[in-house]
Amino acid sequence: MLISVQFLRALAAWLVVGHHFMQLFFNFEVHNALEYLFVEKGGAGVDVFFVISGLVIFLATADKALTPWRFMLMRVARIAPAYWFYTLLLALLTLAVPSMFPDVQLALGHVLLSMLFIPAQHPAGYGVYPLLDVGWTLNFEMLFYCLFAVALWVRGDYRLWVVAVLLYLVCYLIGPALDLADGFYRNDIVLEFLMGIVIGMLYRRGLCRARAWVPLLGIVVACVMFYHGADVPRALEWGVPSAILVISCVALEPYFQGSRVLKLLGDCSYSVYLIHVLVLCAGLWVVKRTGIDPYAMLPVCIVFTAVGAFASYQWLEKSTYRTLKRWFGIEESAVLSRQKY
After folding, report:
1. What is the C-alpha to C-alpha distance for residues 50 and 143, in angstroms, rounded to an integer?
2. What's the whole-number mean pLDDT along residues 258-268?
3. SS3 of 47, please?
4. What value, to the nearest 5°, has the Cα angle with vertex 68 and ends 66 and 71?
5. How many Å apart are CA 50 and CA 47, to the nearest integer?
6. Helix, strand or coil for residue 237?
7. Which of 3, 183, 330, 337 satisfies CB 3.0 to 4.6 Å to 256 for a cystine?
8. What pLDDT is stored for residue 323 in this prediction?
9. How far is CA 233 from the centre of its chain?
10. Residue 89: in which H helix or E strand, if any?
11. What are the TM regions of this chain, as residue ranges (predicted)?
């Protein structure tokens, strides 16, 4: 397990939390420099996630006798249960307290498509989003998993090229020709998965090692690129600095090793990502009814998100994964080898 990657997972998740806090509570109105960072740059946490995903999936499958079917079972067992749980929880809460989620409209067909990771127009009319709107990133993740599963038929050194070709075909040729998911997949953000695979290949070849000042300089460069931005496609504006940030932190792995706190924060990051919008919506609902200062509600939301994510990881993610692992017959050795990274 790369602790540096765990740290970045946690950082990315909480950046997204800050971004959505500013969206829900202030409609992206900026009052100071910190708010500006969360409003304008907080969304880059998703790009860091995507680069990390490419890195982790490549490393987890390198030199492993893993069939495409077994790989997909492992990914579904790991990702889907928690997402399904919070999607259904949102649906139930919307039925019970609709005023808490005024932008949510329920439609059975849309709920089912959301659960199946199939992009569809939200019934409320604000774009191609699942019921639990942060799940739009998981739709890309599942596409990447499916294409990477196909690439498992070839040797590890060729998987980057196979995935790249498949992404191009699906996202830029077949998808637009068939008007697949209203053009949802025609998004250059998918290139960030490839960046992660490249970093994984470099790491496997021992090329992510350097004197500490080199990756530290890389982190500074990435932060400067994030801050200034540019009028270019997202994969360049946020994807490239995300890749620089990831490879720089991986090069600093010896300085992260042994930190149980960072490992735990990374472990909980997926649940943080899934649960935080529910918590923020509940917090906003309380603010509107009591007149409490939104900034006084922020630490409450942070605590509830952190505690809820910890409980979710311990008793939802881990327990369901172990149960499904037994059902699917996934060998313990295969799981442990995957978790190495």
Report:
1. 12
2. 94
3. helix
4. 65
5. 5
6. helix
7. 3
8. 86
9. 19
10. helix 68-96
11. 42-62, 83-101, 134-153, 160-178, 184-203, 210-229, 268-288, 294-316
Structure tokens at 302: 């942070």
Q: Where are the domains of the chain?
A: 3-339
Instruction: Please give the single-letter amino acid code of residue 261.
Output: V
pLDDT tens digits for range 316-328: 999 898 888 788 7
Instruction: Give the angle 46-74-155 at the CA atoms, nearest 5°.
Output: 85
Reported pTM: 0.93
Calpha distance 288→1 (Å, rounded): 43
Separation of alpha carbons 100 and 122, rounded Å: 18
Q: Are 150 and 166 in contact (CB under 8 A)?
A: yes
> Do residues 196 and 50 touch, judged by C-beta distance below 8 A?
yes
Please state the φ and ψ torsions of residue 16, each to the nearest 5 degrees: -65, -35
Q: Are 6 and 32 in contact, with CB atoms under 8 Å apart? A: no
- pLDDT value, residue 330: 64
DSSP conformational letter for 43: T
Q: H or E stretch including 260?
A: helix 260-267
Q: For 171, list phi and psi in degrees, rounded to 5.
A: -85, -25
Rounded mean pLDDT of the chain?
91
Q: What is the secondary structure of 102-170 as a DSSP string?
A: TT----HHHHHHHHTT---B-TTSSSB--SSGGGHHHHHHHHHHHHHHHHTTS-GGGHHHHHHHHHHII
pLDDT above 80 for 188? yes
Sequence-distant (≥ 6) Cβ neighbours of residue 302 within 8 angstroms: 17
Tokens of 216: 């530290």
Question: Which pLDDT score, from 0 to 100, does residue 129 have?
Answer: 95
What b/e readout covers 253-268, taking b as 16+ CB neighbours within 10 angstroms?
beebeeeeebbebbbb
Over the Cα atoms of the chain, what is R_g?
Answer: 20
In the chain, % of residues over pLDDT 90: 78
Q: Output the pLDDT for position 277.
A: 96
What residue has token string 């007149």? 291
The residue assigned the tokens 């990447």 is 144
Say which residue the tokens 């989620």 belong to.
101
